[in-house]
User: What shape does this take?
Amino acid sequence: MSTFPEYANLDLAGIHKAVLAKWKQSHLFEQTLVARKDAEPWIFFEGPPSANGLPGIHHVMGRSLKDVFCRYKTQKGFLVDRKAGWDTHGLPVELGVEKELGITKEDIGKSITIEEYNDACRTAVMRYTGIWKDLTDQMGYWVDMDKPYVTYEPKYMESVWWLLAQLYKKGLIYKGYTIQPYSPKAGTGLSSHELNQPGCYQNVKDNTVVAQFKMINNGQSEALFVLPQYTSLPGRPHRGHCRQIQL
Assistant: This one.
């Protein structure tokens, strides 16, 4: 007798619901943890999405790949605790709250207290957690969403700073320089997805006046007329030193 169910018609949506219902009824995810409770752990903390926005198909694809590794490690005999998380940091969260409240950064601490602003941000960033949980269930994605880690919690932030301190002590952190887009209004650098926010780019008129003047070669302007010097190799001049003048 076959241990696999037989279907008269190929109803993929019905099969999907039946499999999910069976997993939920038998607490299959929890059984994998109980069965491996004494096994070597393989820790998985999900790279947290931000619940202030709706999930998209790219989240389904990313989570499917994550799930493959977790299930594979479980089948290899590891105890795979899988903790979900919520990313609550980011300029889009702040800008969204400020737009809803009709304020700017300058109003914080004046027309609205810092505590009230932070509370509004905490509420906004968790706005769509119900939709995210529903998507997680529909995907059959096994992850603990009942006790997630949240990036605005002091324990999480202190852990990150502790890790950075360890990297610094090991000499693995160095100071470098890079050119990045910057928001003078927000007082912070901008990431690539923040630059894709609606209204980020605007056409503006730049009124510029350019004045041209003739220069007279005399003692006062002599330095501006210095030409590069070249070596005297026949047919192959090499660039020598030239003076750089900053106007």
Summary: The first helix runs from residue 12 to 25.
